[in-house]
Design a protein that fits this description.
Blueprint: E1 2-3, H1 9-14, E2 16-25, H2 29-36, E3 48-52, E4 63-68, E5 72-82, E6 87-95, E7 100-112, E8 115-126, H3 131-153
């Protein structure tokens, strides 16, 4: 696997946004955060296999390995983890994705009445040939993951 570029919180603002998803959910912010922060969080996402490679409790410095569809493989390291703010972010240390130099993800859950809002950003530093693929993938990724999260946590009450 190729070595990823170590990045921090500034990269979340300066990198190329592959995905910026904002989803209103029926479950409370605490319920969503507990699920996203658990050892089994994301088990319900088809094709995604997550294996934590560091012990609980999870926080800054925690690591995990992820397989996506059995094809893409990444090793992640968390550089931000704030339980009080319900926010965490990681960068990819190693990956087998040839079109990227760096990738980071940022999860943030906020309260919204009796439900919550989940904001998810995927930020990349693509190699030149990957830029167009990123633009084409953005709407497909956004729609697919929005359906997954609403199915898991419910739609907000109207």
């Amino acid at each position: 696997m190729a070595q990823g570029k170590e990045v921090g919180e500034d990269f979340l603002r300066s990198g190329t946004k592959l995905l910026h998803l904002i989803v209103r959910l029926g479950a409370s912010a605490d319920e969503v955060w507990a699920d996203l922060s658990s050892p089994t969080g994301f088990d319900y996402v088809p094709g995604l296999q997550v294996r934590w490679t560091s012990p609980e409790p999870f926080g800054v410095g925690s690591t995990r390995s992820v397989s996506i569809g059995g094809v893409a493989k990444v090793d992640e390291r968390y550089f931000l983890w704030d339980n009080a703010a319900r926010r965490k972010a990681f960068y990819v240390e190693r990956f087998n994705l040839p079109g990227l130099r760096a990738l980071a993800e940022d999860y943030h859950v906020t309260a919204d009445g009796s439900g919550s809002v989940f904001t998810w950003k995927i930020v990349v530093e693509p190699k030149p040939h990957f830029k167009l693929l990123g633009v084409l993938a953005r709407p497909v990724l956004g729609a697919a993951f929005k359906r997954v999260f609403v199915k898991r946590f419910g739609a907000p009450a109207r």
